[in-house]
Amino acid sequence: MLAYIFRRLLLIIPTLIGIMVINFVVIQFAPGGPVEQVLAEMRGNAVDATSAFSGQAGDLQTNTQGGSLQAGTTSKYRGAQGLDPAIIKEIEEQFGFDKPVHERFFSMLWDYARFDFGNSYFRDESVINLVLDKMPVSVSLGLWTTLFVYLISIPLGIRKAVKDGSSFDVWSSSAIVIGYAIPSFLFAILLIILFAGGRYMDIFPLRGLTSPGWEQLDWFGRIKDYLWHITLPVTAMVISGFASLTMLTKNSFLDQIGMQYVQTARAKGLSEHQVLYGHVFRNAMLIVIAGFPSAFISILFTGSILIEVIFSLDGLGLLGWEATINRDYPVVFATLYFFTLLGLILQLVGDVMYHLIDPRIDFESRDF
To answer: Which Pfam families match (predicted)?
Structure first.
């Protein structure tokens, strides 16, 4: 098993590089880069570039006044027409865009290998501090959602397997299909309309993970306030997240119930409860329990971004969204790097859990 873990850890390196190459190339062709954001701000028509950089942009704008505009000047940047090329060159140097593409890419890889993510273009803060500051919110959402998904899906899946073909199985399957078909952000909007003052009741808060003055509360008050804020976001993510795991649990139990060892246990006179939970449960739950790390990272990746945006939760999803809108490339690549690395590590943890739960599973013989 140690040799397998070592090979998987080595495989993380080329996987990370490949993902970063693809995204770096895509970013190069995306319109509206950080240079264009500053140019737009200088002209007073920036869309959404929040700016610790605005003071520098203002200084550059001052430099363009007094006859420094050159009519007929062409540039590869939108909004640069008529600006002094020296001004544009200065902006490129500040963002590092004066260097060739390949040099910027290899410099980024070397920095990321040392976990040096640089500074945000439009926030006066290092990227690593931003990520560490926002990470608890996203991890909190992911952990609570995964926990409740498992607490709901496992008993429901077992019940559906035992009652396979019954009216309970039919109507619960219909509810699961509906929940799976509707995206979590639509549930979030519905919950806001119903319970957060959107139209009817105003029970839960709409913004943030804690209330103002949370630090002054005692420990019980902090827990109560935190749970009050996180109820609606977690509910929205759980409703659309438990469908696949419920069906996986049901099918896993049905497969095991049809095995010969189950028939043998029944022939020995064991009760149905003893057969189900003494023999079937361990084998059927192998794939469900071992898949916990993958389920967590899937929920963290796919569900939290829009939920954080809708409920104004200051986590990694919202940070990545704002960075993408503002073309804050250091933050974009750092969050991508973090999520990718976390996903690859948790996949490895899932394989290790398979082996720990059932030592008969041998990954040593797998080819790469």
So the answer is: BPD_transp_1
